[in-house]
């Protein structure tokens, strides 16, 4: 049981970095590998069987059937023709093969006669100097896993989510790899969910930044809706994140709760830990969505308040200007018999009264907060 106690340290030595120079998101295909097969290896008694030349998938499977162990094949964006031979060699179900080639699948777990087909959505946080209405916050990819009794096949799609570092870490623990393909499935699930946790922390920072700017005291320059585009873009990215996290919760619960003949019972226990972390991320993402709704509504309310203040100021000045306009309109009429027209003090009295009325209205409006 020492292997089980060390399982988390092996598959989760540290949280992946989100920086661009991190190897966790290195997805360039090996230039020496012209096909979609990134790596193909046979593992026996927990150790990788070294060969003089790279193994072809059918050769690896022949060795496994003859000498035991299991084969792990990694592919990156294979075409239908590239994957057809592997699918036939390992007896993969046609529906699962179609999903693996076409990609853009929802996270799921499907059980076939001799294999499990699991789809994971990988999430990569896109670094940006400043969040704006056009910023891409998260980038998604896919990892599809075929788990059999003596084989494990991964099919990756997208520009991130390399499993090379994970493969090397697993190879450093022969006792874990001796548990077979289900140990690799758990390691990939744990790796993907750890990526979710790291991305959630980074998205939280972006939301905190937007929230601080929207609710900062004395903010006068931009409460007219200029932040609405940024908030809406961030909300769209959170929705993309949510689509990757939420559907995966049910497959993880199945892997952790239902006995499956292709999953080692000792390994199955640790799927509960993955499901628990995934549930926490899901709650966090749902909270992001609700918080962004509140921030967007608050921002729009601030814009409405600012517009109302402008309208009150315009109305106040219109009321002040109405007084001299009315007076000038009255004395601009061409009547012969207007008493004040020939009065010696008529003009200064009328001007004084006009100024006093304007000043009185201005002070009243200012005292009521309209100016």
Explain what this protein looks like in three dimensions:
The chain has 371 residues and is of the alpha+beta class. 54% of the residues lie in helices and 13% in strands. The chain contains 13 helices and 7 strands. A 7-stranded mixed β-sheet has the order 2-1-3-7-6-5-4, sandwiched between helices. The protein starts with a helix and ends with a helix. Mean pLDDT is 81; it is low at 1-33 and 220-225.
List its salient traits:
single chain; 13 helices; alpha+beta; 7-stranded mixed sheet; 371 residues
Largest sheet: 7 strands, mixed
Can you tell me the residue ranges where pLDDT is under 50 for at least 5 consecutive residues?
A: 1-33, 220-225
Order of helices and strands: HHEEHEHHEEEEHHHHHHHH
Span between termini: 76 Å
Count all strands and give the number. Answer: 7
SS element count, helices: 13
What would the average pLDDT be, to the nearest integer? 81
Round the Cα radius of gyration to an integer and report it.
Answer: 34 Å
Helix content: 40-55%
Q: Main sheet: which strands, in order across?
A: 2-1-3-7-6-5-4
Layout of SSEs?
Layout: H1 2-5, H2 7-11, E1 37-44, E2 47-48, H3 57-67, E3 70-76, H4 80-90, H5 94-102, E4 108-111, E5 115-125, E6 138-148, E7 151-157, H6 164-171, H7 174-177, H8 181-214, H9 228-245, H10 249-257, H11 265-268, H12 271-331, H13 346-367
Parallel strand pairs: 3-7
Antiparallel strand pairs: 1-2, 1-3, 4-5, 5-6, 6-7
Provide a quick synopsis of the model:
With 371 residues, this protein is an alpha+beta fold. The chain contains 13 helices and seven strands. It has a seven-stranded mixed β-sheet with strand order 2-1-3-7-6-5-4, sandwiched between helices.
């Amino acid at each position: 049981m020492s292997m089980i106690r060390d399982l988390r340290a092996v598959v989760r030595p540290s949280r992946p970095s989100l920086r661009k120079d991190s190897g966790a998101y290195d997805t360039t295909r090996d230039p020496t590998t012209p096909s979609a097969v990134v790596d193909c290896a046979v593992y026996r008694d927990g150790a990788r069987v070294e060969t003089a030349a790279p193994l072809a998938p059918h050769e690896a499977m022949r060795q496994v059937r003859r000498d035991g162990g299991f084969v792990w094949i990694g592919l990156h964006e294979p075409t239908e023709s590239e994957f057809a031979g592997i699918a036939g060699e390992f007896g993969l179900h046609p529906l699962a093969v179609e999903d693996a080639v076409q990609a853009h699948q929802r996270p799921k777990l499907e059980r076939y006669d001799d294999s499990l087909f699991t789809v994971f959505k990988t999430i990569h946080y896109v670094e940006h100097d400043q969040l704006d209405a056009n910023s891409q916050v998260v980038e998604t990819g896919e990892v599809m896993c075929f788990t059999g009794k003596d084989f494990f096949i991964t099919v990756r799609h997208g520009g991130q989510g390399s499993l090379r570092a994970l493969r090397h870490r697993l190879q450093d623990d022969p006792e874990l790899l001796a548990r077979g393909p289900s140990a690799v499935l758990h390691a990939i699930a744990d790796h993907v969910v750890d990526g979710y946790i790291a991305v959630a922390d980074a998205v939280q920072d972006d939301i905190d930044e937007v929230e601080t700017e929207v609710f900062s005291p004395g903010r006068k320059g931009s409460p007219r809706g200029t932040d609405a585009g940024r908030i809406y873009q961030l909300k769209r990215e959170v929705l993309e994140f949510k689509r990757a996290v939420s559907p995966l919760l049910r497959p993880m619960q199945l892997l952790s709760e239902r006995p499956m003949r292709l999953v080692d019972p000792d390994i199955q226990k640790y799927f509960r830990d993955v499901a628990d972390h995934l549930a926490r991320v899901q709650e966090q993402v749902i909270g992001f969505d609700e918080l962004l709704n509140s921030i967007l509504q608050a921002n729009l309310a601030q814009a409405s308040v600012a517009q109302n203040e402008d309208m009150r100021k315009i109305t106040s000045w219109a009321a002040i200007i109405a007084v001299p306009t009315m007076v000038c309109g009255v004395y601009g009429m061409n009547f012969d018999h207007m008493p004040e027209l020939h009065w010696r003090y008529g003009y200064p009295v009328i001007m004084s009264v006009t100024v006093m009325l304007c000043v009185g209205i201005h002070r009243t409006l200012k005292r009521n907060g309209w100016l």
